[in-house]
Amino acid sequence: MSTGPGRTGATAAQADAPVDPDVDLRSPGQVRELARRPWAVIGAIAAGGAIGATARHAADVLLPHGPGQLPLSTLLVNVSGALLIGALMVAVEARPGARLMRPFLGTGVLGGYTTFSTHVVDVQHLLEAGRPGWALLYLGGTLFGALAAVGIGVAAAEAAVRAARGRGGEHGRKEPR
Amino acid sequence: MTWLMVALGAAVGAPLRYLADRFVQARHDSVFPWGTHAANATACLLLGFTAALALPPAVAAFAGTGLLGALSTYSTFGYETYRLARTGARFLAFANAAASIAAGLGAALIGAAIARSITG
After folding, report:
1. What local confidence, expressed as pLDDT, does residue A67 receive?
2. A19 part of contact set with chain B, CB < 8 Å
3. Rg (CA), chain A
4. Which residues of B touch A22 (CB under 8 A)?
5. What is the ipTM, given to two decimal places?
6. Could you tell me the pTM of the whole model?
7. Dihedral (Cα; A114, A118, A120, A124), 10-degree rounding
């Protein structure tokens, strides 16, 4: 039940890595989740998306930027969202019973909080404002900042799971879903 | 009003991304995250278009910040790129980052060009 046929084709390294934040159809549990409880899953993603996007809008209001200026709010949102998704995906893997955790927090809240489209249009606007240096710095800073942040989030959460397992808790039990 | 529009737009955009991701993923059999790539590129095309129009603030908040902001995702993109690199698919990780940015920028420019050609 816990390891379906979709998993057997994956390499050992893939099986070891946590599942996808949005949806991973190589995971049998995620293939079924929409058919099993469509409105719970869609509703959780919609509510999470609304919460996440509202938080992103709050960052824009607190840290506004004019044309030709570095969009610091979007940079901070995307990098902090990457840190949180790294930690979340380790938690999702460690708690297979919490079925709405990934759709609500991963697909919804963090998916709505972070944004690729605003980031890219920010780059376009910096280029059009005659700031190619800022555009490259913003592009590279967000990409490498986010990738490093995912790694830090995963490492921190894995350390926390190991510590919980060390105390004899069943929460640390690893079971792909 | 703006806050409500952002929340309502995202409540549409985030489930759309999930459904689009499922739709695309069901139609290919590779580890490359085409679903997120497609959602992000589509959102860039449409945001490039809407950002180039002089929309009323409430409409811009609903469609731009809310719907198209939530249709795209940096967290899932970052996580998928990280996971490809960590599972040894370094070239695919690099290709995903490069292709997402190139496709996103190209799509945003095309969207803006369409909007400007319509509005003159």
Report:
1. 83
2. no
3. 18
4. 17-18, 21, 35-36, 73, 76
5. 0.97
6. 0.90
7. -160
| Residue B115 exposed, middle or buried by CB count within 10 Å (0-12, 13-18, 19+) | middle
Cβ neighbors of B56 (< 8 A, separation 6 or more) are: none
Which of A 26-55 lie inside 8 A of B, CB atoms? 34, 41-42, 45-54
With 90 as the cut, is the pLDDT of residue A13 above it? Answer: no
Distance CA B70, CA A34 (A): 20
Residue B101 has pLDDT above 70, yes or no: yes
Q: A127, exposed or middle or buried, with CB in 10 Å at 0-12, 13-18, 19+?
A: middle
Please state, rounded to an integer, the average pLDDT across all residues of chain B.
96
Q: Nearest chain A Cα to B69, which residue?
A: A115
Between B24 and A36, name the one with better pLDDT.
B24
Query: From residue A85, how far is each of A32, A92, A94, B45 by CA, in Å?
Result: 23, 10, 14, 25
Q: Which of residues 72-101 of A touch B (CB under 8 A)?
A: 78, 81-82, 84-86, 89
pLDDT per residue over A49-74, tens digit each? 999 999 999 999 999 998 889 999 99
What CA–CA distance (Å, rounded) separates B18 from A45?
8
Any idea what DSSP says for residue B73?
-
Q: Are A41 and A33 in contact (CB under 8 A)?
A: yes
